[in-house]
Amino acid sequence: MNQFFNELQYFSDFTTRAAIMEAFAAIALSFLLSLLITWVYKKTHKSGQYSQTFVQTIIIMSVVVSVIMIVIGNNIAVAFGLVGAFSIIRFRSAMADPKDIAFIFFGMAAGIACGLGFYTLAILFAITLSLLIYILYATNYGAKDELAKTLKVTIPENMHYDQVFDEIFATFLAQHKLLQVETTNLGTMYQLTYTIVPKEGVSDKSIIDAIREHNANLKVSIIMPSQTF
Prior knowledge:
Helix content: 55-70%
Keywords: Membrane, Transmembrane, Transmembrane helix
Order of helices and strands: HHHHHEHEEHE
Largest sheet: 4 strands, antiparallel
Pfam families: DUF4956
Protein name: DUF4956 domain-containing protein
Radius of gyration: 28 Å
Distance between the termini: 76 Å
Number of strands: 4
InterPro entries: DUF4956
């Protein structure tokens, strides 16, 4: 009888050690794959708002998700319990770049695959999607030939803005559209926001100089395409 209990204890310890080793392997692999994901994110990031905290968050979420999947296993009750627990979490930070959301899901998917023990699938998934993302970045896929810029013009309150710059726009711009009108300087001025596409060979300085002759030499700014909203 004692021998039976000793063998049972040994088997239990062996199972525990195997589970711990498997969990450690899942955590380590999810960490390594998230490093690859964040490296691709840094290389392909174009927008001006880069956040080191966001990069670290992707790594943390990948590892956390892998641990959650290990804890859940095949236990349906635990799965529903975790759903209820995480339903109280609210993310209030708005993403500056929609692609950031895709990278969050990228890291989570890699973590899920590692947590479920699909190590080969996780590796192939991370490498393949990383290559695809880098190819899209290198080929600049989806970019339009005409890159729109944002033009902001400040005018006096007594100036009618409806058609005041039509002649200038016809001369220097291939396209333009009024996006927003707002008051500024305690309501004494208007700020007009346009999206514009300059004609070929037209410099930003030429546009600004022409507008300044008609807006009482008030503030004029042109925002480059990567920062256009």
